[in-house]
Amino acid sequence: MRAHFGLLAFSTPRILILIAVAAFVLAAMLSVSPALGAEVTVLSGDTFQLETTSWRIANIDAPRTEKTCADEARLGALAQAKLAEFLNQGEMEIAPTGGSDRYAAKLALVRMNGEDVGEKMIAAGLAQRHGRARALCVGMHNLRDELRPTDLSRNPMGMSSPHMN
């Protein structure tokens, strides 16, 4: 089958190839790869700033570092440090979801060298899956009081993870 467009004639396989190339180019345009040497500032265990734009990793919730109990703040500081470590390990790819959080940070899935950073934070025990996070502080006492010490030594957030030793 041939399609005729003025002087151009395309067979079905050529049209499919053109569509595939166009889809690839569109996908590349929708993801953001920061320029080499771009300044990244880690704001929390799930949020960072790349030059003037704040990004929140869409698939995780990390412990807070402010306005929370002491144990959650400690875990939040660990999560912030771990995220900084992950974001300094190679080539970053940001795939915006089109949404933003309540602080106006753009939501995105973030990959470093092809690996999902949110999943790595969950595997490290320093974040919970977005939408399924449980409270770490309840009133003036916190979740740590309810966990066995072995739970916290095995995994800082007391959650089981197939990647933890």
Characteristic terms for this protein:
single chain, 165 residues, alpha+beta, OB fold (Dihydrolipoamide Acetyltransferase, E2P), 2 domains, six-stranded mixed beta sheet, two-stranded antiparallel sheet, 4 helices, 12 strands, 30% helix, 28% strand, globular, disordered C terminus
Radius of gyration: 21 Å
Shape: globular
- Total strands: the figure is 12
Along the chain, the helix and strand elements come as EEHEEEEHEEEHEEEH
Poorly predicted parts: 21-31, 140-154, 159-165
Main beta sheet, described? Answer: 6 strands, mixed
Share of residues in strands = 25-35%
The DSSP helix count reads: 4
Overall SS class: alpha+beta
Helix content: 25-40%
Number of domains: 2
CATH topology type of the largest domain: OB fold (Dihydrolipoamide Acetyltransferase, E2P)
Provide the residue-averaged pLDDT: 76
CATH uppermost class of the largest domain: Mainly Beta
- For the termini, the CA-CA separation is 59 Å
Give the name of the CATH architecture of the largest domain: Beta Barrel
